[in-house]
Amino acid sequence: MAPSQATHVPNLDNLIKSLNSLPLEASIESLIFLLKRRQVTGDECAKATAHVLRQVVAKSKWNDVDQLLSRVQSAGSRLARAAPLEPVIGNIVRRVLGLIRDEASEDRNVDDLASEAASDIQSLAPSAPSPQKAAPAPVRPPPTVVSTGLQVSKSMFNLLSVAETGDTPVTGASTPLSQAQTASVHALRSEVMDGIEEILDEINQADDQIAGFADIQIHPGDYVLAYQPSRTVERFLVKAASKRRFTVIIAGLESRNHDAITEPPYAALRKRLNAAGVNTINLASNGLMAYIPRVNKVIFGAKAVYQNGGLLVDSGCCIAAQAAHEYLKPVIVLCPVYKFCPEDPSDEVSRGELGNPSSYVSYADGPEVDALEVENTVTDYIPPELVDVYLTNLGPQTQHHLASILADHYKTEDITLGLALQLGEP
Amino acid sequence: MGVAAIESLIEVLRATPSSTAMETVEVVRKEKAKLLASTPNPLPLLAGADLFEQYLLRSLRGPTAEGSTGSSASDRVLSFEQTRQHLLDNKQLFAQRAKMARDNIALWGSRYVSDGRIVLTAGGSRTVTKILLRAAADPSKHFKVIYVVDGRNRRSDVAVAQLRAAGLEVETISPHKVAYVLANQKQINLVLVGTEVVMQNGGIISGMGTAQLAHLTKTVKGGIRRFYVAAETHKICRKTPIAYPMVNRVGVRQKDVSKFDNIGVDPAPDDAAALLAEQDEVDYTDPELIDGFITEQGVKMASAIWEMVDVYL
Amino acid sequence: MSSKQGGKGGAAAGKAKKPAKAGTDEKREDVLQAVILADSFQDRFKPFTLETPRCLLPLVNVPVIEYTLEFLASNGVQEVFIYCGAHSESIEQYIRESLRWSPGSILSPFSSLEFIRVSDAHSIGDFLRDLDKRAIIAGDFILVHGDLVANIQLDAALAKHRARREANRDACMTMVLRSVGEQPHRAARARGITPVFVVDPTTGRCLQYEETHPLQSEHHLVLDPAVFSHGEFEIRSDLIDCGIDICTPDILALWSESFDYELPRKNFLHGVLKDWELNGKMLFTEILDDGYAARASNLQMYDCISKDVLERWTLPFVPDSNLVHGQTYRRIKGGSYAEDHVVIERGAKVTQSALGRGTTVQTGSVVSRSVIGKRCKIGKNVRIENSYIWDDAVVGDGTSIFHSIVAGSVVVGANCRIPEGSLISFNVHLDNGIQLPSKPPARISLLSDEQQRAETDVSLVGKGGKGALYQVVTEEEESDDEDGVKRDPAILQSSLIYSLEGLNLSTSSISTLASEDGYGSDDEISTAASLQGSDFGQTRDRLSSFASDDASKPDSFHADAVSGLVDALRADDDDFDSAKLEFMGLRLANNASDSAMRRAIAVAFVRRAAELLTPPHGALEPTRAAERALAAKAGAVKFIREVGVGGDSVAQQADFALAVQKALLAVKDLEPARAGTLLAALLQQLYSLDVLEEDGILAWWADERAAEGEGMNKLREKCRVLVEWLENADEEESSEEEEEEDDDDEDEEDDD
What we know:
The complex is a heterotrimer of chains A (about 425), B (about 325) and C (about 750).
Chain A: H1 12-18, H2 24-36, H3 43-59, H4 65-82, H5 87-114, H6 179-211, H7 214-217, E1 223-227, H8 231-243, E2 247-251, H9 267-275, E3 279-283, H10 288-291, E4 297-301, E5 304-305, E6 311-314, H11 317-326, E7 331-334, H12 347-351, H13 366-371, E8 379-382, E9 389-392, E10 395-397, H14 402-409, H15 412-415, H16 417-423
Parallel strand pairs in A: 1-2, 1-4, 2-3, 4-7, 7-9
Antiparallel strand pairs in A: 5-6, 6-8, 9-10
Chain B: H1 2-15, H2 21-37, H3 43-69, H4 80-89, H5 91-110, E1 118-122, H6 126-136, E2 144-148, H7 154-165, E3 169-173, H8 178-184, E4 188-194, E5 197-199, E6 204-207, H9 210-219, E7 226-230, E8 236-237, H10 246-249, H11 269-274, E9 282-285, E10 292-295, E11 298-300, H12 302-312
Parallel strand pairs in B: 1-2, 1-4, 2-3, 4-7, 5-8, 7-10
Antiparallel strand pairs in B: 5-6, 6-9, 10-11
Chain C: H1 10-27, E1 33-37, E2 58-59, E3 62-63, H2 64-74, E4 79-84, H3 88-97, E5 112-117, H4 124-134, E6 141-145, E7 148-150, H5 155-167, E8 171-179, H6 186-190, E9 194-199, E10 206-212, H7 225-229, E11 234-236, E12 239-247, H8 250-257, H9 264-274, H10 276-279, E13 282-288, E14 293-295, H11 299-310, E15 330-332, E16 336-338, E17 343-344, E18 349-351, E19 354-355, E20 360-361, E21 366-368, E22 371-372, E23 377-378, E24 383-385, E25 388-389, E26 394-395, E27 400-402, E28 405-406, E29 411-412, E30 417-418, E31 423-424, E32 429-430, E33 443-445, H12 458-461, E34 468-469, H13 476-482, H14 490-493, H15 507-514, H16 523-536, H17 555-570, H18 577-590, H19 594-613, H20 622-631, H21 636-645, H22 650-666, H23 672-688, H24 694-702, H25 709-717, H26 720-728, H27 733-751
Parallel strand pairs in C: 1-4, 1-6, 4-5, 8-13, 16-19, 17-20, 18-21, 19-22, 20-23, 21-24, 22-25, 23-26, 24-27, 25-28, 26-29, 27-30, 28-31, 29-32, 31-33
Antiparallel strand pairs in C: 2-3, 6-12, 7-14, 8-12, 9-10, 9-11, 15-16, 33-34
Helix pairs in contact in C: 1-8, 4-8, 17-18, 17-19, 19-20, 19-21, 19-22, 20-23, 22-23, 22-24, 22-25, 23-25, 23-27
């Protein structure tokens, strides 16, 4: 029997494989616990969330758009709550919600055209406060407010609008079930699932797309400082190496697996870069400042980008960014669009996540374990002032364009997901 | 103020006998102009009055325009007559909604108050007070407040009294001390102000001293501090101050310091009366200095304000 | 799996069965099975475990078994069998009501979870023998205890185990151990018993297993000669045994063959290794240098693990991971964790603690390095340090609690003081202003040991209080009297604070902890053994030396005998005869040699004499001490003469003198000059009591062994005056005795 098989330890791949056979609740739950146990982290979270939400759309029972939205929302916020410092999860949930809203409204429009005459049925819905007979049916469902009592709309006319805000929930007003719709549930399901496939494709391709901009960002002869290169950054550098001759300075320690502890940090990356003819220099963190004056640009990957342009990053990046800022060296952050959060960083973000103190002190060192309190922050927050370019899979962006990217990708109605999390009642 | 303008225009509407749509709009416009002229700082009224006018006008464009864009969310577009009736019937509702908007802002804003930190604020905004009270209601959050008071703005004193009554630790400082306090109180991580008006470029025109506070928040070193403005979306005013003196260019009548008119020229007594009293003077704070707006629709970046106006048009 | 009723002869049968079982082994290789032993048949957690099983006691507000189950889930275990003993209903009920673990639940990460009740089980051994009978174990399985907290990944260990098993059928168990380094460590301190593994560093094979603990009077181990023949080996006492064993089913057969094994380590492991030549089984260790694994096996470990959890060594098993359903921990300032609806009033300070849902801490209170359960009410100006307060407890204003456990629904009145080490069990009420005793710390419970409601002790808990002192029923006292060696190390483990105080340990036996075992055997052998040790491999070991005598040498005899004698000498009554009898009994039982007896007697009297020099025992002068030690008990002198020296020959007397000298050298807290003076005093005393004769002492003086090494020589030098006097004074002994005494005193003054 080959000993190679059978890793019993659950991980993302095993989960994805088993998703089809598991009942829905079980797959949501498995992911929640993988997240809580930190067995799925970082970029994997996005993928895992999309896979599980796909199951939610496929397997849960829903008869109309509102129900679907609420199913996705509740599953999504449970996932997001499981890992408060992986904002990517919330982003994917919002993307899927937005996707459902889009698909639904398209359907409606088609429906409306097809059955203009039959649209009277819809006016049987609970009537609006206006004493007059309701004029043409609304084109889209009003925002559904599922987990909070908070009314969200994006119009300034809120104040004067006809629709009741707050007192009576407006959900359902537009979603009576006609038979046509029952049929369209099926269509909607498959469309939304296709949409989620596209999101998955986007996640999978993002790194390559970002790497596609490598030769624009990196010029021949550059000295590029890569701080704790993530997989995205690695791919970017390797791609650049295929086109350009430059020098990479790698700073920070690789924090991944304990097995490879004997290897010098980032040995694999260095090998690949050297093979492409790019020089690499490894740098201890404390030598960072000395090298910054010689560096042309600083590159690192972000775990998330907030709406104010601030970044959630692996700890240590902030030092590199600050050093670069001090010497007026451009800081380029690689971050696929799915990592952009339509939120401001919470206190938890600025406080950072605490890791296991054993990265710094061995548990076997009795006197130190007794005497020291070791706080090992594993995440950092970088304020927007320190970042020059956000290199996304859609191309380089500046801070001022973040708002429009967010507006393109998220529906205002779904931003509340964040608040729902904060208020956090299960 | 904005809501007051809307309420008075509704009364105008009520008093105007129902005639053609365009006629009604004319009447409203005239009344609006009168209203604005009556005060040296018409901006808060302008925001409300504009909103009212636009809402009325939109009904003229009719529902067809709406259907094609498919973007407006919670709002169905009524015919002109319906609109008129709706406005007349629901005056109370609007006031109530304005209040509710403040409640929602308090909900959003209280998230930004951190445990163990200090909030620096000024100006006596009721919205800010509400945010702080809401945050104080969370038993797991303990924070302190430093209030900038200048001795003339009564609203600040009221706000301080309210906060203290709620059991918050509040310290008051004079405006001269802002830089000193910012530099020395490392626990300050949030500077929170209210505003009367949000300009469409994301700047604000608010009580004198706000701009100073914003500048100092950005420039005094030490720690990450955020400058947030609490404002309802109906305070957004479709104007952009572009040239100095900015506030005067957008219609605020206050003393123009650049004229150095202390020697020789005696200002006409009527002019002086038409100007804003010194304690009510306003200044303009650049959007660059503002980290975000806490609105009832969530927290927006300054750059997002423009897009909201876009929706509204 | 047929031969359960195995006696010793079962070993061969076990071997023969193997091929048959191989098929089932491999068939279900991909399903990982685990067995949880949810009862350990110990009462270290009493009085808490009177009402609640140990594995449901909250550790940082989570029942301990949750950690164990989650650990198994995180390692991809699919089938779980839980053996419950005491309180099995409540464990079953807990699991069945749990959303996550309930056997039928679709949310459960396990494909099956079964409870197994064994009605007449009295030890873990019974469980495992039962498991063998049931034949539910298909292949390799993981054996853990229900109080395990670990975040390690077993993948590598599992793979290695499989590879070994593929290579050799007899490699049937891998023990996962965590190294804690050679320096003092809180987890090492807390475990009470120090396991000592003799391990082949290249293969990880375990060659011998022993246990040591501070209460044993003889601090050395005896290595099996087979170990030496093995080649390179390490002796490691720096390991935390977290009780994770990766086993093949053969292991169960081994249990069945030995019906008297109870404990998996002390009996089973020790026994199987010892009988290696018989059973041919090889057991391996997997020693981890990172990751976290420990068992909350006693209150001190509970304390230690709780702190480790709060300090995040156990990540992801930390409060803010919220691994248990419905938990809502967040990190708050001060390095603390709080759930929703926790109210920390303004002016209260909470650092490095965890607070459960609905708990209130009123103003002015300070909580540090503590865990407070759900719905607790902590009053004003309360101080809580290093303590564990379980759900629904109420603590009144102005009360201080230090390093104690306050169990669920306890009500502590205002202005009480609960000092270090107190254990207050469920539902106890303390009236206002109660000051609990600090020495020994109180254990208060509503129930007595027999599950009866105890009568409230008003003097302890106050008029409005409920609860009584919980009497620990151990054989502590009795065993002390009977024979010192049976002092149960469990005493060390049943208190919250590790302390040797109040356990009536002689100072000398504490000192032996350090390194005095040199006298545990003849010097030559001892040196040789350590040389061998360093030749064969590093000695990674806290025991600074170890002795290796002939395998046949009855070492336990020495330990037992010495402590028995010392205790008898210490006793207030005048009865030395029983000690004598006991000694002779031991001698017969162990077939001890004359030299061993001589050694034991010398050590015992010397210890007593040295002890008398120390302040707690009167700080006597050496002369007086020697006299008291030797002559205080009627019959002692005779005993020494007859048994200790054992004859009249000069050689025997010299040997005894030499034994006294060596024993003195071994007493650690004694500076050499003083020890020398004491030696002189003892010899003189022995001389005047007619135990030793002039010739005997002179022969000792002439013996080169007495002058060997610097330490021995120093002691010997101190006796020069005595010897010279003996040499010179032939007749007038009695008249010159006083002079000599004076000399002695002068000597002493010189030293000081």
